[in-house]
């Protein structure tokens, strides 16, 4: 009986080692295990591999072409972006130059309102210069300048005719004041046109209108106060320039 118990204890002590050895033996066997496959399955796998290789070789040139085209397109895109930036810079420069040109043309045209009317200069230079301005906002804001240039000759004639008529009416010995003539002056289209211009008193014709107005206000029946001779000559000299057109 004791001998059987000792044998059981010995087997229990050696059991873990035997189990470990069995596990190691099994792992080693798995590593060295040979997987067998049938000829039919082998041929099928080989056929699928060959088909995949054929498809790969067929697609490879297309892939390379796409990559090459993408590179070319990328280069073209970069070139286009560079050219676009250059064109934008040139466009900005041209727009700035155009703005300067518009201001220059506008100033040239407007300056003729500050010198005596000369037919050729106004009709052939000043008016065309204003019309050449491409900035619509600038032309709209200063449209009165264009109106005065277009009517410059007629305004000069109106003022000359008015002075001539006023001299005759006030030459009457019974005339005590020039109130009626003042009303006529203020209703004169030329006077109304110039009153719309902010610096009208600084213009050449505006100064003459102011002188005539002051003379009429100061008229108290003394005809000698009406000294329109110089103004009349200036206005007539202006109108005579139309003969040079």
Fold and architecture overview:
- The chain is mainly alpha-helical.
- It contains ten helices and no strands.
- Helix 2 (39-111) packs antiparallel against helix 3 and helix 6 packs antiparallel against helix 10 (229-240).
Task: Please outline the helices and strands.
Layout: H1 2-31, H2 39-111, H3 119-131, H4 136-141, H5 143-150, H6 152-170, H7 179-186, H8 189-195, H9 204-218, H10 229-240
Question: Care to give the gist of this entry?
Answer:
The chain has about 240 residues and is mainly α.
Descriptive key words:
mainly alpha; 245 residues; disordered N terminus; rod-shaped
* Category by helix and strand content: mainly alpha
Rg from Cα: 53 Å
**What is the multimeric organization of the chains shown?**
single chain
Output the number of helix runs: 10
Along the chain, the helix and strand elements come as HHHHHHHHHH
Number of strands: 0
Q: Output mean pLDDT.
A: 83
Relative helix content? over 70%
* Global shape: rod-shaped
Q: Cα distance, first to last residue?
A: 154 Å
Low-confidence stretches: 1-31
- Approximately how much beta-strand content do the residues carry? under 5%
**Mind describing the biggest β-sheet?**
none
